[in-house]
Structure formats: C-alpha cells, structure tokens
Amino acid sequence: MADGTPLPDSQRRVRRSPLLFTAPLVLLAVLTLVLLWEAVRANVSPGVRGDWPWRLQLLDMEALGSLLAVATGAVLARAQYARTVRPYLGWRGSWRTGLLVEGEPAWRVGILNGGQHIAVIESWECRVVPSGGSGTGTAAWVAVPDVVATLTADGLSAGRDYQLIAFGTGFPLVGTGNYDTVPVGVFSRRFVERIDVLQVRVRVTDVVGDSHERVLDCMRGSREEYNVPGAEPVNE
Asked: Which runs of E-coded beta strand occur in 16-61?
C-alpha cells in the first residue's frame, strides 16, 4: 500500500539477523576487495611493486581463495537454511455455536504456523474501526488492552460480545503439519455488525533471527453469504 502498511493476508520479511546475515555478507565483501587488490598488485611491474602502497600484501592468494570459498558457501548455506526454517503464518475464521453464549453463533479466528520450525512472537498489535469510522488507514496500531478500551467505549462487552486474546513477547508458534489453529479472538454477531475492521499485526522471529510480519483481517469473511451464522461446528 502507499502508506507502507502491509496488505492484509500477506506475509513479509521485515528484518534479517545482523549477526547471521549481515556479518557473512560483510566478510564476503571484504575478501572480494582484498582479491581485487591482490589481482591489481600482481599485474604491477616488479620495479613499482617495491614502492608504497604496492608492496602491501594483505593475504596470500592461496589462503585468500580458501577464505573466499568458505565465505561464499556460508552465505549460500545461510540463505538456503533461512528458506527452510521460514515460518508460514496463516489464519482461519469460521462461525461456531456456543463459544460466547450458549446456542448463539460466534465468529472464531485462529492463527497457525504452517512452517516446519518454531517461530517466537516478537510483537502483537491490533487496530479497530467501528462502523461508520474514518477508515483503516487512520487507525493506529495499539496493544490489545487499548483496543478493549475502544470497544468498551463503543458499547461492546468483553466476554459477552467478544473475546480478544493477547499474546506476549516470546510466545512460541510451533510449526504444525496439520491445520490446528491457536485462537486469536471470538466475536458475536452483534460485534460483527458494529465493527467494520479488526486487524491484528503479528511479528515473529524465526530460528535464524529473521523477523516476519503478517496482518490478520479478523472480520474478513464473517459477512459473506457463504458463511452462515449458526452452522454446525467444525472440529479442529
């Protein structure tokens, strides 16, 4: 989007590990510069090579070649491993009966990590736009308690109209081979009618230190004709 906000339902990498990504690249760049220096120095006439700065020999060419091979291999191996351990954040919403009030339908939203390895939550923020609000772009990302305060001011009660889960820093999203989701929130039909947008922005850190971010559009699909409130629960 033009304001830099990630699109709903899109995952992006927002930061790479300085130690495990930047350091090998810096080392590779330094060794490449040394190689260029030694290549130029080797082509200078022997008479000039005795003068400064041409007499400066940084590394033996054989040792330099070995170090370059190791650094290049480390960069490529790190890139491949980062793809292997990358988390795949997904979410799902469905109408269920009896989650808030006995016999009443509620819209349940859950998140999962479909990758093969664990991801740890780095930050968890929300933003809400009531019906008739000024739009998502002007709403600020805030913590769950601040969203609860906004919803309370709008006449919605926690526990009766909705449940919104707060995930703390360090909460692990374990990679799963199935589609079991961790609950993000449960919302009544009254909540769905009165709130246009409720988004959750989750940022996680994978096992190589890279940070990934996804925005969950919790109200998306709740008003579609093919989602019938009160349908039979689906086991997860």
From this structure: none
* Rounded distance between C-alpha atoms, residue 129 and residue 147, angstroms: 10
Here the tokens at position 169 are 């820093």
Closest CA to 165 of 189, 176, 181: 181
Q: Give the H/E segment covering residue 78.
A: helix 61-85
pLDDT digit string, tens, across residues 59-102: 777 788 888 888 888 888 888 888 888 999 999 999 999 999 99
Over the Cα atoms of the chain, what is R_g?
A: 26
Write the pLDDT tens digit of every residue in 104-148: 999 999 999 988 899 999 999 999 998 876 666 678 899 999 999
Q: What token pair was written down for 40?
A: 């130029």
Closest by alpha carbon to 65, among 90, 88, 34, 111? 34
Q: What is the DSSP string of 89-141?
A: EEEEEEEEESSSSTT-EEEEEEEEE-SSS-EEEEEEEEEEEETT-S-GGGPPP
Task: Give the tokens for residue 218.
Answer: 């919790």
Structural contact between residues 212 and 121, judged by C-beta atoms closer than 8 angstroms: no
The H or E element spanning position 197 is strand 195-205
Compute CA 141 distance to the chain's CA centroid, rounded to the nearest angstrom.
Answer: 15
User: Distance between CA atoms of 209 and 82, rounded to whole angstroms?
Assistant: 9
**3-state secondary structure (DSSP) of residue 45:** coil
Q: Decide if 21 contacts 80 (C-beta within 8 A).
A: no
Q: What is the pTM of this model?
A: 0.76
